[in-house]
Amino acid sequence: MPLEGLDGKVVVVSGVGPGLGQAIAVRSARAGADVVLAARTEARLDEVAEQVTRLGRKAVPVPTDIRDDEAARRLVDTALGTFGRVDALVHNAFAVPPITDLLDVDLDQVRKGFETNVLAALRLTRLFTPGLEQSRGSVVMINSAVLRHSRRTFGAYKMAKASLLALAQSLATELGPRGIRVNSVAPGYIWADSLQWYFEYLAGQRGVDPQQVYDETAATIDLRKLPEPDEIADAVVFLASGLARAVTGQCLDVNGGEYHH
């Protein structure tokens, strides 16, 4: 049975790749949406497009560097030219900033991170605003549980994500009168390829089974389970859908209870 909420809608997803980007696209299709897929790697786009098509929905892959004005405009033109409408824009594209202390971090690398993580999201939102206004659509920005802590070496990461949250909240105020909702989803751990690889690495360093690393980590979370990409994607689908029609300017944490906010 398809999920309720996005029947006949068109969802644009940036940063499509393995893990969460793929899950957002596929869960949107399961909820009834056609999907426009944006990422720099064309092979990834084609793979996810095939999954969407198998679900009976249309998928349009558009190789895009969202930091580039011309490429971003081409994405908008392709989406509107193909479907004639856009109902939701999901910002999943992200570049990991240097994981090091702020006193030592390379400022040029921090600036590059802001280009992808914050300014590109603003660029795309501005370009899609006329289409979203017509459909009274919504924007969902993927944030992070880094908002909820200030651990060492995560300073540049938190700077970027805190700025992205401020962007989403400010856009909610600006775009609300035009009928456009803007919300955020903040995942904690995401049990997918990269985290699985990292846990295997940690287990190898300690000489233990990777399951032990998982269990120790899960023991710090209320639900004793690390969220999987589909579970986070379902929160995105909810915020993009009419089920959240009175929700804007909010950040929904999806972390199994690791942090309470």
From TrEMBL:
GO molecular function list: oxidoreductase activity
Keywords: Oxidoreductase
Alphabetical list of CDD domains matching this protein: SDR_c
Domain annotation Ketoreductase: ranges: 8-194
SMART domains given in the database record: PKS_KR
Stored NCBIfam families: PRK07890.1
The protein's name in its UniProt record: NAD(P)-dependent dehydrogenase (Short-subunit alcohol dehydrogenase family)
